[in-house]
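Researcher: Batch entry, complex prediction.
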Amino acid sequence: MTRSLIPGIILLLAGLVLAVLPFYLLPVCSDTVTTIFGDQMPMKCHWTARAVLGVGILIAAGGLSFCLSGHARTRAGIAWMTALSGLLAVAIPVRLIGVCPSEAMPCRMGTYPGVIVAGALVFAVGLFAAWRESMKAKGKKD
Amino acid sequence: MIQPPLTTRAVALAALRRKPFRTGCLILLVALFAFTLFGGSILSANLRAGLAGLSGRMGADILFVPHGYEKKFQAAILRGEPSQFYIKAGLTEKIRSAPYVQAASPQLFIASLAAGCCTAKVQLVGFDQDTDFSVGPWMRSRLKRPLKDSEVVAGSMIIPGPGEKIRFFGRDFTIAAKMDRTGMGFDTSVFMTMDAAYDLMRESGMVTGDTDGIRDYISSVMVKVVDGFDIKEAANLLMRGNAVEYDLDMVVAANMLAAVGGSMRNLSLVLYGLALAFWVIALMALFTVFSSGRNERKREMGILRILGATRGKTASLILTEALLVSAVGAAAGVTLAALVVFPFNMLIFTGLGLPFMSLSGAEIFFYALAAFAAATFMGPLASAWTAWSVTRQDAYATFREGE
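Model: Structure tokens for the complex:
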């Protein structure tokens, strides 16, 4: 029983890491851009950080639900959704919103690879957990 | 239920699965060794390549800057930290007139504001195309013709590509060429003609009042000493003749390279020292676990021998267990190191403040293979004595001892 909780605990921790990563661990750029009207506007990595925070919390909730759920089929479903959320986390800085283009910017050097590595880890662990729980559910049915 | 065949690998895997905590700890130790060895080797190799690139691109033997700006100048060259400082332009002619000076060329440094949205500040460098000998030679591989005043040559990390526009202080420049990656401050620098740099300073409002006198100032003088003349002596003579009048500081290129090389060696020493420490710890742990396990498993070995396993078979069982543990640990360590070193290499090297160059795929593969082999070999090495001693024992006595 305890061993079957391990993927859930990893997903929970990875989700929490993803949520705080763009703000504390590998923070995005803090500078602002001045518009032609003189307004201060945050760079696009700021919005990436906020989106990753949301997805990170979602993944952590997935990990917690995985641990609390008693049925293999339910766990497999949760693991699938969490794995896909990991892909979503990767897509935010890579495709959906992006980060600053210069390789010398903090968001590009730290946040960008950090989110990709953490998101890929969530995807891999989620996929493994989904496969294992599906096998368990299938075994019970047979 | 069909039982799997009783091969050496199947028995070794079953023995490892029976003690998951012990197996996990051994894998972790081997993984730590593989991680530090592979990660450390890659970092050291990147830094060595960076140092080689730096020495190849310096060009000048001595660099003169205003007094107190020696560190800022080095930070601009090594890490691309933008700065600006000025000395009187007459210094160049005075240095050039010395008989032991082969060439002297001025440069003008301007620290830019961010070049548009979401980009970092860059170092603008104006250079004299007529006298230059340090920038031009490696720029010519990308740009065969002279640079126009409306054009710039950009470092590899500057975002717009060749032919595109880039704006500094409200003035648009066309990027004539982009340089190859250097792993140094040049990657975030932009090179322009001296005239363009002076115009930019005037137009940007950086200088107020007597803007016509702006051409009387430069930032640094790059000096090449005639072949055979002692560089240190030349530096001392030039300092003696000009230090008071121009309030100078100097950077001897060889000294700067030696200092960077020293920092690099210290870092490599720490990394390889750490790998050695993990190697010793993991080897001792593997040896202790397998040799103490030999006593615990006398009965098991005795039964295997009575069932018909040869001495060689029991020895290979122990060696296979050790090999499996170390191979899994080695693979995990190398993979983890790759996940840390490659995605975060910019962050690591920027933090270290040392020049670096990326390695080729073949070099990376070689280092990964070497680290994997070194870590995998550790298991059989640590368990060799145990495997040998098992073959020395009598089957029945071993079985009775284990009861």
